[in-house]
Design goal:
319 residues, 3-stranded parallel sheet, single chain, TIM Barrel, alpha/beta, 7-stranded parallel sheet
Length: 319
C-alpha cells in the first residue's frame, strides 16, 4: 500500500470462543494491514475463558505460520512484513481476568497480550469505567497495576475508562499511554468518546489516539471513509499527526456481540444497544489513505497515522 510503510490496526474483535476460527484475518491481510491487536477477553470473561481463548488463538496462528506470526518484539513485526506475513498480538479489555493479582500481568504478557485497558465500561476493582458511577478514578490496586504494566512492558490503553481514571493513569504512568480505539467527543457526543482534554493529555505522554470505526462513536451511525477521516482531521488539528492512529474495533461476529449486550446490561446500557451496530470494515484502510491524500496530507503524516505512531509506542514500551 503506497504511502505507508506499515499499516496498523490497534484493536480487532474476533469471536471469544474456545473453537473460534481466525480465517477472517485474511480480510485484513488482503487489505494491506501488516499488524493487528486481537482482543482475547473483557471484564465479564473469567480467567479460564480468557486463557482458553488465548490457547485457541495461539494454536490457530501456529497452524497458519506461513501467513501469520504472533509477535514478541517489534523486530518480529519487521520480519513479518519482509516475509509477507501478518503480525499479530493480543489485548485485554479490562483487568478483571487478572483476579487482582499483579503477577498475572507478566503471565499474560508472555502469552502475547501486549496491550490492556483497566476497566471495560463498568467500574471494577482497578478503575472507573466510562459508563460507571461517579466518574471513579484509579483504586490503590489500579495505581499498582499501571506501575506493573510499565515495568513489564505492556501498553496502557485508556479506552472504555472513566475520565477521572484516564487522568489518574496518565499521571502515574512513566510510559506513553494510548486510547487504542476512541473518538473525539467534540464530533460525536457519546459516553465512549473522549474529551479534548483527554486527547491532549494522552499526546503529552507521547501517546496515540486510535480512531474507532463504530458508527455510533463516529456519529449518526456513519461508517463512511470520509467520516473516519473527519475524526482523524480533528485529532490531528488538536495534537498533531504524530499522535493519531487507527483502531477500528471491527466486530467479526455481530450475533455474538448482540448476545453479550443482552446478557450484560450493566456493561452495555439498553439505550445504546438499541442502535443498529455498524462498523468501518478493514477493507476501507486503502480508502483512508486515498482520502488523506485528497486532503493534502503529506506522505510522512500518512505513514504516521497508518501505523508508524503505534509502532513507535511498541518500540518504546514493549520489553
Amino acid at each position: 500500500m503506497p504511502g505507508a510503510t506499515i499499516i496498523w490496526d490497534a484493536h480487532a474483535c474476533f469471536p471469544l470462543r474456545f473453537d473460534a476460527d481466525l480465517s477472517d484475518l485474511q480480510r485484513y491481510k488482503q487489505a494491506g494491514i501488516h499488524y493487528t491487536s486481537i482482543n482475547v477477553g473483557m471484564d465479564y470473561n473469567s480467567i479460564e475463558e480468557v486463557l482458553r481463548v488465548i490457547a485457541n488463538f495461539r494454536y490457530w496462528i501456529a497452524q497458519h505460520a506461513s501467513d501469520y506470526i504472533l509477535v514478541q518484539s517489534t523486530a518480529d513485526i519487521s520480519d513479518a512484513v519482509a516475509n509477507n506475513k501478518m503480525a499479530l498480538s493480543f489485548d485485554l479489555e479490562g483487568s478483571v481476568p487478572l483476579m487482582n493479582d499483579l503477577h498475572m500481568v507478566s503471565c499474560f504478557y508472555n502469552l502475547g497480550v501486549k496491550q490492556m485497558l483497566l476497566a471495560y465500561n463498568a467500574d471494577n476493582s482497578a478503575a472507573g469505567g466510562c459508563w460507571g458511577k461517579d466518574n471513579l478514578g484509579l483504586s490503590h490496586f489500579g495505581c499498582e497495576l499501571v506501575q506493573e504494566m510499565n515495568r513489564v512492558g505492556m501498553v496502557l490503553d485508556l479506552s472504555h475508562m472513566s475520565v477521572a481514571a484516564s487522568f489518574d493513569a496518565i499521571d502515574i504512568s512513566t510510559q506513553p499511554v494510548v486510547f487504542s480505539h476512541s473518538n473525539p467527543k467534540s464530533l460525536a457526543d457519546h459516553p465512549r468518546n473522549i474529551t479534548d482534554e483527554q486527547i491532549e493529555a494522552c499526546a503529552k505522554t507521547g501517546g496515540v489516539i486510535g480512531i474507532n470505526g463504530i458508527g455510533r462513536f463516529l456519529g449518526n451511525n456513519d461508517t463512511s471513509t470520509q467520516r473516519v477521516v473527519e475524526h482523524i482531521d480533528y485529532v490531528v488539528n488538536l495534537v498533531g499527526d504524530e499522535h493519531v492512529g487507527i483502531g477500528l474495533d471491527y466486530q467479526i461476529d455481530i450475533d455474538e456481540l448482540l448476545a453479550y449486550k443482552k446478557a450484560h446490561p450493566e456493561i452495555y446500557p439498553p439505550e445504546d444497544s438499541a442502535v443498529e451496530p455498524r462498523y468501518v470494515a478493514p477493507e476501507q484502510f486503502p480508502e483512508i489513505i486515498v482520502e488523506l491524500r485528497a486532503r493534502h496530507y503529506s506522505e510522512i503524516a500518512i505513514a504516521n497515522i497508518m501505523g508508524e505512531n503505534f509502532l513507535r509506542i511498541a518500540k518504546q514500551v514493549w520489553q
